[in-house]
Amino acid sequence: MSLLLRPPFVPGPPRPSRILEPLGLHAPRGHERYVVEGGGVIVIAARAGDRLRIVNDEGGQPCEIAAFAADGRSDTAILGAPANSDAGGLKALLASGQPSLTALRRRLEGRGIDLGRARALHLFGADTPARTDETLTLTQDATLVIGAPGGGMAPDAQDTATPLTVHLTLARPRSEARFELPDALADPILDLRVKSATAEAYFVKAGDYLQIIDVDGRQCTDFQCFSARKLDKGIEHALDVTATRSAMGHVYPMPGLHSKYFDQDFVPLIEVVQDTCGRHDTFGLACTAKYYDDIGYPGHVNCTENFNHALGKHGVKPRGGWMAANFFFNTGVDAHGVMYADEPWSRPGDYVMVRALTDLVCVSSACPDDTTAANGWNPTDIHVRTYSGAEPFKRAIAIRPTKDSEPKMTKETGFHDRLSKLTRNFVEYRGYWLANGFAAAGPIEEYWACRQKSVVMDLSALRKWEITGPDAEALMQYCLTRDVKKLAVGQIVYSAMCYPHGGMIDDGTVFRLGQDNFRWVGGDDYSGIWLREQAEALGLKVLVRSSTDQLHNLAVQGPESRDLLKKVIWTPAHQPTVEELGWFRFTVGRIGAADGIPVVVSRTGYTGELGYEVWCHPKHGGEVFDAIWAAGKDHGLTPMGLQALDMLRIEAGLIFAGYDFSDQTDPFEAGIGFTVPLKSKTDDFVGREALVRRKEHPSRKMVGLVIDGNVQVGHGDCVHVGRAQVGEVTSSMRSPILGQNIALARIDVAHAEVGTDVEVGKLDGHQKRLPAKIVSLSHYDPKKTRPQS
Q1: 410-419: average pLDDT
Q2: Shortest CA distance to 693 belongs to which of 496, 502, 482?
Q3: Is there a contact between 637 and 422 (Cβ–Cβ < 8 Å)?
Q4: ∠ at Cα 434 (432, 439), nearest 5°?
Q5: Which 3 state secondary structure label does DSSP give 486?
Q6: Angle at Cα 111 formed by Cα 107 and Cα 113, nearest 5°?
Q7: Beta strands in 28-150 (DSSP E)
Q8: Predicted pLDDT of residue 84
Q9: How far apart are CA 158 and CA 516, in angstroms?
Q10: What end-to-end distance do the CA atoms of the chain give, in Å?
């Protein structure tokens, strides 16, 4: 007799689902958060009784606060504290000439606020630990000017300026809304609320900007527009997402090269300028009556009928279903070709900004779908603003280093002004616009220039962190796989950084600037955040502060790079000259002469050739570039972009995060086992136990592949022995110097011996195969004789 299995009896009411989400989605009503960037200033309007908490995020960052009463009078008694000095730091920042701060100063002057006589409350000092906070309560309504003062950090110094976070708890919430509408980015022409489950039509003039804001987060909005000129002629050619995908080659346009939406005649209608969300849809229709009828909700309000109603006022005929740019809609296609949707990625205040490329009639909805996760199960409002085309908005994409971070918009590097005269082909890379290639040469010519002559390339997007204090060496010794204790002042070492399970956080280089002074240069913001977290957990006396925005770098690479730079770089007698500089060493010098621009020059690179990197403050970027460019005329100096760099580093067997390694990959599996000296480094470090185990029992190995033929292979292509998959391609290219298709791949150790024949699978992995042979990881100069020459 079979027994009927039943679930166990659980007394009491059901428990709610446990969901861990970013802090910004659950801020209590009446709580506002602001970030003051290092070397930046913000202005906040606050009221009597409001509580201000200022957090020194990374430590060591001074703060100045000036409070102004309604009559423009400066009075720090409003903050419940006496002024302890002149607002010198604030004044210096606002007089620095930075465009954003100049505009802020003008707004203050427009409110009748004069910083010239202001006194300020000074908080924190150079030794203040990370996360230290101060709380103040306002005694009356005031305008607060809060700054994180800091001058330009010299490249061999470590006095970087870092962010402050300001938490404002309101005594009386400004409204009943859960989240406040963000401040306008400029004076708006149109300020339009699209209420939940409705749609609104509006006009946008050619050249003007349109900002579409998700006020409460997790809310979709369908967007459609028409050329007003065509409508006047009775031609109803709406924005066509199929034409757009075909023209742009992307599933949806983003700021940068592939940014335009078109109609069916490929007439460009809008260009995406800024995007703080980065996740949208162009496949599904705006929700329809049929959709809701079919899933059992007949008569449900829907975006299509809302569009029909709003556009009818402009003479547009109704449709049964509207294609649209579905901003904030989170969709995808799984391995079986099934489309799916989930909650949006958008957070409160996220927005998309587009620019009208012709006069437009537009319509925006606040999607009413409460039957799925498409709007986070809670449909809310959308807000629309338009701005004059004269506003200086720059293209940008937001990134967040951690899930709880405020968004940071894409920036231009200190060399962008010079490089933008040589190319328009820039791509967003980790928060910066970097050149992808140059029209005058192209990636193949740039590649050969690096192999034969010299190239210059902007690599300022690398993350830099200053590690200072009596426990700096102890922290780096514990957090990196390399033996940092052996590092001399002036020396650099390449290292892995691992989690306790042995998976990699990042790879990078560590510079030793002094006995208790280090600089970590990596690819990911989180590597520096993680260093600080370990320092705090261990109670170490050390500061870990970001200097990415204070230190930009040009790579000068190629056989003639030394001869070029020795004409440009002056060094004092106690520092090595460029000619004397050893591999993985750095020197401190100046451009041209003893009174020139300060720089640090390191003998490092990512090309497999002799090469250097020149580090300077971004304010000097143009002058540094000009000096190198002028000296490079006799050395065939060519500007190089990311496309050529990828070719060079693959040939040299140099790995790239997200392609060749992840947090599921240990250094041995990534091909950099030499960075884990388990025998010679006797001190413990994070991940050591796991790495001992992984080294003794390896499962995968990083190898090179030579493909027999010219058919392109790509990241993620499967590698087979017979029917079985034994690995995957991580990076690939067609090598100009070898005349072969080559790849980097991670292979099961049972099939990873050099000389083993394998096959790269295309299509479904079986219908098309490319014969290949396993070779050493470095296809070009495996002994690294050229960079050491």
Answers
A1: 97
A2: 502
A3: no
A4: 155
A5: helix
A6: 95
A7: 31-36, 41-46, 51-56, 63-68, 85-86, 119-123, 132-137, 142-147
A8: 66
A9: 11
A10: 82
